[in-house]
Amino acid sequence: MGRARTLAQVYRQFGEVDAAGTSPLYERVAVALSESDEALRAIEVAPARRRHPTVILAALHDLALAGRAPALAAAYAAGDSNAAARAAIDTLLRMTDSVVAIAVRRRTRPDETGRCAVLYPAIAEAARRVGAKAVGLIDVGCSAGLNLNVDRVGITYSNRQSLGDPSSPVQLSASIVGDRRVPARVMPEVVARIGVDLDPVDVTDPDDARWLRACLWPDQPERAARLDAEMALAATAPPLLLQGAAVDVLPDAFARVPAEALPVVTTTWTLSRFALASRLRFLHRLDEAATGRVVAWVSAEGVGVAPAIPTLGDRRASGHSIIGLAVFDQSSMRAEAIGRCWSRGRLLAWLADSARSGNNGCTRQRTA
Ligand SMILES: C[S@@+](CC[C@H](N)C(=O)[O-])C[C@H]1O[C@@H](n2cnc3c(N)ncnc32)[C@H](O)[C@@H]1O
Fold first, then answer.
1. Ligand 1 geometric centre to CA of 141 (Å)
2. If you take atom 13 of ligand 1, which residue's CA is the nearest one?
């Protein structure tokens, strides 16, 4: 009883606090689940760590998108929250094993589209500093690898600058904070696209692609359309996905970047998932790779999360992130904070003086 009450509170709070104002469908469905003893018992069939509303609601959404829960799909499509609540409970009770199997097998994914507004100018800046004519992208914590499309999307900034491909089917926008313009430089040719993740998502696999959609809330059609467009673009030139822990897989990833190209490792909101020791080992892997070639690392991570990247004196967990650029050559590593960003890169402030290495950095002798 005690555990069921706690679960009920979790679902009620998710509905009344997290989903309220954002998703009327999930607000109603979560509260309805919290009020149904039968539904809560069905959720308790899942292991404790897989009972959270984001997991169970995504599993139900996945069944709806797969055509296995037609009444739920119809209620979501109609935006009918009462019908959705009834259908969600009914689906959960009829298909408990399927819901639990999905909840156990899948990790929920954040809405991971749109990072390119931050990545494009930072990667182009890395290439400029090194004089690279070609780059090989290695995205660590790549999930579905959407960051690896960075040169194939169009980006419009609120100050009327634009970067990337204006004819791309994926057009992103971002707001510029402050006066400084992002560098207008075009990114050099991308000759390798490599994603590294413990559990990569293959956008060419229908089940994987559906799961990414299922992790969005059903009354977010604009997000779903953007995700569909980004996945369709990615599917036309799928990245090489390497599964495993970054510290183990990175040497293989570097080996796959042609010698004439600059390897640019990117991390976007990934390193907080690494234990501190793993973050340092990750840095060490970049150092090791730079024994034989110049290596760059572009990061967008919470304040103080990316090792060696200056924090600009900002407080940790202050809600924004630091855009970092580190260049490792044979003798030194220069790490710099080149910007700040908010809302996963939908707002950004560029800080670097793109005519030279900026003042927000530090240089140290390499250790490897
Ligand atoms: C919070 S998600 C960020 C995904 C994406 N970069 C973004 O911008 O939304 C973290 C990702 O890192 C992956 N991950 C966590 N630990 C990892 C590790 N040690 N090595 C490689 N990938 C890891 C997870 O599987 C997950 O896809």
1. 3
2. 141
The continuous run of DSSP H or E covering 2 comes out as helix 2-13
Q: Is 303 in the pocket of ligand 1 (CB under 6 A)?
A: no
Name the nearest CA neighbour of 348 among 164, 168, 166, 158: 158
Q: Which atom of ligand 1 is nearest to the CA of 107?
A: 25
Q: Is the pTM of this model over 0.85?
A: yes
- Cβ atoms 117, 348 nearer than 8 A: yes
Integer Cα distance of 253 and 267 in angstroms: 14
CA distances from 264 to 6, 47, 131, 192 (A): 46, 39, 13, 10
When the pLDDT of each residue in the chain is averaged and rounded to a whole number, the result is: 94
Q: Give pLDDT tens digits for 44-69.
A: 999 999 999 999 999 999 999 999 99
- Indicate if ligand 1 lies below 6 Å from the C-beta of 111: no
Q: Is 141 left (phi over 0), alpha (psi -120 to 50) or beta?
A: left
